[in-house]
C-alpha cells in the first residue's frame, strides 16, 4: 500500500519546516472546533505558505501573511453567503453526496483547506464519517468527492489526475514547481524545483 504522505513529500523535496509551530495548530484547532488531519498538518508545516505547480495554494497557521486561520474564516464567510436554493439536482452537493445540510465552518459542515488560482476550492468533511474525506468545487459549480487523505489527494493532483472533478487536471512534466510566498511587502516570491521525477 502506498504511503501517500511520503510519496508526496518525495516529489516536493526536503521539508523546510520554516514555520512549524504546534502552538499555532493548537490555537487554530481551538478556534475552528475541529482537528485538521495529521497528514495535512505535516505537509503545511513542511512547505507552506507556498504555491505548487503554479496553481495550488497552501497557507500556514503560524504566519501573519498567508495565514491559514484567516483564509479559512474568509472562505467560510464567502461560501456562507451563497444561496443554495433552486439548484438543479446534478449541481446540488447535498443530493450528490448525501449531506444533510450545506454549511461552511460548522461541526457538520465543509472546511476549506486549500484552493487554486483557477477558482477551485478543496474542502475537508469530518462529520459523520469514519475517516475525513474531501469535497472539491471546480470554480464553476461542479462538485466532486474524494474518499482519501489530503496527502493522497495532493499526490494525485501533482501526478496530473483530475482532482477537482472532470477535466481539472493540472499536469506539468518534470519536477514539481514550488514558489515560496512573500512574507512582507518587500519580498518577492521565491521559486524552486522539487527533485527529478523522471517524467
Automatic annotation (TrEMBL):
<protein>
    <recommendedName>
        <fullName>SMI1/KNR4 family protein</fullName>
    </recommendedName>
</protein>
<dbReference type="InterPro" id="IPR037883">
    <property type="entry name" value="Knr4/Smi1-like_sf"/>
</dbReference>
Amino acid at each position: 500500500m502506498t504511503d501517500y504522505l511520503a510519496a508526496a513529500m518525495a516529489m516536493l523535496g526536503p521539508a523546510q519546516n520554516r514555520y512549524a509551530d504546534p502552538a499555532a495548530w493548537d490555537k487554530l484547532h481551538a478556534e475552528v472546533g475541529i482537528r485538521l488531519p495529521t497528514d495535512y498538518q505535516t505537509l503545511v508545516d513542511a512547505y507552506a505558505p507556498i504555491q505548487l505547480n503554479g496553481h495550488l495554494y497552501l497557507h500556514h497557521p503560524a504566519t501573519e501573511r498567508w495565514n491559514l486561520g484567516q483564509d479559512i474564516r474568509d472562505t467560510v464567510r464567502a461560501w456562507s453567503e451563497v444561496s443554495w436554493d433552486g439548484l438543479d439536482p446534478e449541481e446540488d452537493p447535498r443530493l450528490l453526496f448525501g449531506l444533510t445540510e450545506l454549511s461552511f465552518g460548522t461541526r457538520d459542515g465543509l472546511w476549506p483547506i486549500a484552493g487554486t488560482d483557477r477558482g477551485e476550492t478543496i474542502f475537508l468533511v469530518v462529520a459523520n464519517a469514519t475517516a475525513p474525506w474531501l469535497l472539491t468545487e471546480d470554480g464553476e459549480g461542479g462538485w466532486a468527492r474524494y474518499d482519501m487523505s489530503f496527502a493522497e489527494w495532493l499526490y494525485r493532483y501533482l501526478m496530473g489526475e483530475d482532482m477537482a472533478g472532470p477535466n481539472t487536471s493540472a499536469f506539468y512534466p518534470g519536477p514539481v514547481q514550488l514558489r515560496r510566498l512573500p512574507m512582507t511587502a518587500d519580498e518577492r516570491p521565491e521559486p524552486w524545483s522539487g527533485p527529478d521525477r523522471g517524467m
